[in-house]
Amino acid sequence: MKMENIVKDLTDALDLDVPTRMLGIPDQEYVIQISPRQLLSVVEKLWEYGVWHLSTITCLQDEHFTLLYHFWYFGNLTVHLDLIEGDLQVQSICGLIPGAEYYEREIREMYGIEFRGMPNPAPLLLPDSWKGGYPMRRDGQGNIPEIEKKDSDALEGGIS
After folding, report:
1. What is the per-residue pLDDT for 159?
2. What is the pLDDT of residue 94?
3. For the chain, is the Cβ count within 10 Å smaller at the N or the C terminus?
4. CATH match for 3-138 among 3.30.460.80, 3.40.50.300, 3.30.365.10, 3.30.1330.60
5. Are strands 89-91 and 114-116 parallel, antiparallel or unpaired?
């Protein structure tokens, strides 16, 4: 089944909005915008169609947080969802796609997005002793500790 047919069947079966196309991306790229509560039903339906390859999950922060789930099956499909400020959580898809665990853990650690039902919420990249907040946040909750510079850290005299 072609991605075009999968997207049409998916939008019909779950009564989703018509997919959009991303600017600058070839015609084989489809983007479906959903609400966070629709995520599991969309991923379950994709699984039924044989779309189980999740390339990555991207987190973006602008006026709000956006999660982009990038799937591949002889064409690209991005599932786009926006999170509401004050409710930065979404259901984990690890029960359907176990490989999503690393993407979810990274996003949780870097941005503070909670994935309900995540099987292993242990830190992935930051040390267990990290107390500095969420390093990728741009809303003042990053709280990255200042590193004390020593005079010996300064470079002098141009290129070394």
Report:
1. 54
2. 97
3. C
4. 3.30.460.80
5. parallel
CA 129 to chain centre: 24
CA distance 57 to 59: 7
Residue-level pLDDT at 142: 54
Burial category of 55 from C-beta neighbours within 10 Å (exposed 0-12, middle 13-18, buried 19 and up): middle
Q: Domain limits of the chain?
A: 3-138
Q: Tokens 């898809």 — which residue?
A: 93
Output DSSP code: residue 20. Answer: B
Whole-number Å distance between alpha carbons of 123 and 106: 8
Of the candidates 140, 116, 42, 35, the residue with the CA atom closest to the CA atom of residue 83: 35
Report the SS3 class of residue 115: strand
DSSP character string of 39-69: HHHHHHHHHHTT--EEEEEEEEESSSEEEEE
| Best CA proximity match to 2, nearest among 24, 30, 22 | 30
